[in-house]
Structures are given as structure tokens and as C-alpha cells.
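Input (structure):
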């Protein structure tokens, strides 16, 4: 193995979040309220399968064991099964996850599993079909629910569900969400709304602190679960009366960045050291031949030296990220 990816704060990077497209068919109020608009008209310029294979191999050779395939909506890629297969068959990668809006799950999740997908996160911001429609711009609640059922049917033992809590939309649904996971092996992850470059008033109006939810959970007998090395950023809670678990993703909490173990690659092949960082560092010129791997690794190692200790969200600075569909959340 080449030298493990590590930064000057001794954080090791086991986890790669790989975006494979910026395109999305939903219009979530907090992400792409007006839908996807190509930045430069070049839809075809997302990473190709050979480029994906090379970047994943380089990361695996430097200690990465988990890859999340994200977007935009990753399942919009026609070669999505091939991408999963390529990642899953990379030596050293033992967890292959995706984050999806779920609209293709009912039809395709069986193929994804066969291709090697080990973990699924699906975004469901409301358990009311009308509110779901209002938040996502799509009347696809039933379809997404059918997708979750199908995931269990084809053999997934747990499905993770992401919900972004927002004051004026779904905050009142917390009890309904808890009830929903009582008998289902779902890890329900409440994600704090994050401010991005294209959002201001919406954030002020809708941001809900995860700390309030945590207090509520602890009062109701939920207890924290111990973290593993390549876990994501959620604080996970379990309860003896619930089959499901709750995850809280609280990027505004002090210390959130101390356990950072992930790096990101955008759909156009840029390295992002932080979700809320910089413009990204071009890697694509080093993804054209297998023989370039050593140079690719060297470029990433050099960049890691400048990874900052923390994001600056608390100061209202969301960096250069216009919305999370641009680097996959
Ligand atoms: N389209 C897929 C989906 O929605 O699951 C994958 C990409 S999406 C950018 C990944 C995750 O980021 C989703 O769970 C979404 O809810 C979350 N997300 C997007 N914008 C966000 C924001 N401003 N604050 C918090 N979470 C956000
Ligand atoms: Fe699309 Fe996901 Fe963004 Fe919603 S959160 S608009 S589904 S990329």
C-alpha cells in the first residue's frame, strides 16, 4: 500500500465520496429549487467509467475502504450498475454505498445489489405525500417508499434514510418519523440544514439545531452508539424499543470536523478537501492512464497538507459550494 492519506492534524481518510453526475431530476427546496441547470452546457463531461476506476484504485491503494457514490442523482447515470461494479471490485474497498433520491430504487435496487452495492441511503424528507411533493417538487412519495420496501426484499438488512429538518416544512413530523422506525430496521438520519452559496433567507428561516432533537432523544431513553473508523459523520442513537436507529448530522456543532475521515471527488474530477471548502483541485489530467497513479497520489498527498482544521460555517461562510448537488453532499 502507498502511504495512507493523512493530513497534518493526523486525520486519516478511509472514506471517499465520489460524485458521478451533477444532474438531478428533483427540485429540493434546499438544494436545487429551480432544478438542475447545466453550468457550461457540457453534460457529457462527467467522469467516465475508466476515470472512476483509476481514481477509486488510487484511493484504495492509500487506505480508503469505503466509497459513497453520489451526485446530483447518481442513479441517473445509465452506467450506474457498471460504476457500482467497478468500485466494488476494486481491491481494498469493502463498503460501497450510494445516496439516492430513490426514484429508481423500486425498479433497480436488485441490480444494484447484484453489482456489489453494500449500503443504501435514500432521502425522504417527509412521510406525507403532499409535503414530500412540496419539498422535492416531485409527486413520487409512493414510488420512493416502494423502493425502500424493495431494498429489504432484495436482501438489505438496513436502509439509511436522510431527512433534512426544516422549521416551516417537516419539523412537526419528528414524532411520526420516530414511530415509522419503531418496527423497521432503518437508520433515520436527521441532517441539519446547511447554508450554501445560493441560500440565505431560506436558511435563516428553516435551520433547526440538531441539539434540540438530541436532547429530546436522550430524554426519551435513546443512547449513543460507539463509532467505527470509517463511519460517516452521524452521531447514532439506539433505543431498546425501536428496531430502527437515529443518526444526527450536526455540521454546526463544535468538534464536527475533528473526526473528519472523508474526501470528495466532484463529478468533473476535482478533489474537494471539505464540503465547504474551495473551488476544488483538478485531478482529471492524471486520470487518463493507469500509469499516472503515482503522480495522482502525489498530487492528492500535497493537497492534503493544506486541508484546514475545520469549515467556517459557523461564521456564515459556506465556501465556494453553490449547492450540495454540485459535490454530492
Ligand atoms: N440526489 C441524492 C439525494 O438527494 O439523496 C444524492 C445527492 S444529495 C446532494 C445528498 C444529500 O444531501 C441528501 O440527503 C440531501 O438531502 C442532502 N442535502 C442537500 N442539500 C442540503 C443542504 N443544504 N443541507 C443539508 N443537507 C442537504
Ligand atoms: Fe436532487 Fe438530491 Fe439535491 Fe434533492 S437533494 S435536488 S434529490 S441532488
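Output (sequence):
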Amino acid at each position: 500500500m502507498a502511504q495512507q492519506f493523512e493530513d497534518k492534524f493526523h486525520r486519516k481518510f478511509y472514506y471517499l465520496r465520489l460524485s458521478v453526475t451533477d444532474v438531478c431530476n428533483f427540485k429540493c427546496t434546499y438544494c436545487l429549487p429551480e432544478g438542475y441547470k447545466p453550468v457550461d452546457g457540457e453534460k457529457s463531461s462527467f467522469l467516465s467509467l475508466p476515470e472512476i476506476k483509476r481514481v477509486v484504485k488510487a484511493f484504495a491503494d492509500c487506505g480508503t475502504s469505503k466509497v459513497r457514490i453520489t451526485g446530483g442523482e447518481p442513479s441517473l447515470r445509465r452506467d450506474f450498475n457498471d460504476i457500482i461494479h467497478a468500485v466494488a471490485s476494486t481491491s481494498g474497498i469493502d463498503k460501497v454505498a450510494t445516496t439516492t433520491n430513490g426514484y429508481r430504487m423500486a425498479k433497480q435496487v436488485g441490480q444494484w445489489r447484484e453489482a456489489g452495492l453494500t449500503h443504501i441511503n435514500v432521502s425522504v424528507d417527509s412521510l406525507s405525500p403532499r409535503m414530500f411533493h412540496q419539498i422535492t417538487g416531485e409527486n413520487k412519495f409512493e414510488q420512493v417508499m416502494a423502493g425502500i420496501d424493495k431494498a429489504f426484499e432484495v436482501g438489505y438488512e438496513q436502509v439509511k434514510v436522510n431527512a433534512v429538518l426544516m422549521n416551516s416544512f417537516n419539523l412537526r413530523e419528528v414524532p411520526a418519523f420516530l414511530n415509522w422506525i419503531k418496527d423497521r430496521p432503518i437508520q433515520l438520519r436527521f441532517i441539519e440544514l446547511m447554508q450554501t452559496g445560493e441560500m440565505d433567507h431560506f436558511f435563516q428561516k428553516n435551520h433547526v439545531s440538531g441539539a434540540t432533537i438530541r436532547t429530546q432523544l436522550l430524554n426519551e431513553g435513546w443512547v449513543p452508539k460507539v463509532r467505527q473508523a470509517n463511519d460517516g459523520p452521524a452521531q447514532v442513537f439506539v433505543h431498546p424499543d425501536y428496531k430502527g436507529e437515529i443518526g444526527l448530522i450536526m455540521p454546526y456543532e463544535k468538534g464536527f470536523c475533528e473526526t473528519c475521515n472523508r474526501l470528495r471527488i466532484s463529478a468533473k474530477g476535482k478533489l474537494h478537501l471539505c464540503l465547504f471548502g474551495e473551488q476544488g483541485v483538478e485531478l482529471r489530467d492524471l486520470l487518463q492512464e493507469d500509469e499516472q497513479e503515482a503522480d495522482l497520489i502525489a498530487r492528492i498527498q500535497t493537497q492534503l497538507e493544506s486541508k484546514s482544521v475545520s469549515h467556517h460555517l459557523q461564521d456564515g461562510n459556506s465556501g465556494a459550494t453553490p449547492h450540495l448537488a454540485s459535490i454530492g453532499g
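Notes: The first strand starts at residue 15 and ends at 19. The chain has one domain: 15-326.
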